[in-house]
Amino acid sequence: MKIITIFLLLALQANVCAKEPASERQTELLYLLKHDCGACHGMTLKGGLGPPLLPEVLATKPKELLFNTIFYGRMETAMPPWQNFLTPEEINWLLKQLLEGIDES
Question: What pTM did the predictor assign?
Fold first, then answer.
């Protein structure tokens, strides 16, 4: 378990140097965020079954916690793990979008 934690922390730190997903994949990730995540977190990400995913709410949470929540999900909640569908780089890119605020255009 320690090795996995170290790997994830290194992946988070590497985010600064990691290249962004290709433009087409970014479009797919934003669609996923607005529709799949929006199904529980609200279509405008202001909350629903799941908590809001707004910058002002997420800014108070450690990035490692946010990353792990997406990667592993949350046991005994409706939050599924996304590790089989998203790479660590894609999760970091999505977190960056959420923390900066999603453009509704």
Answer: 0.80
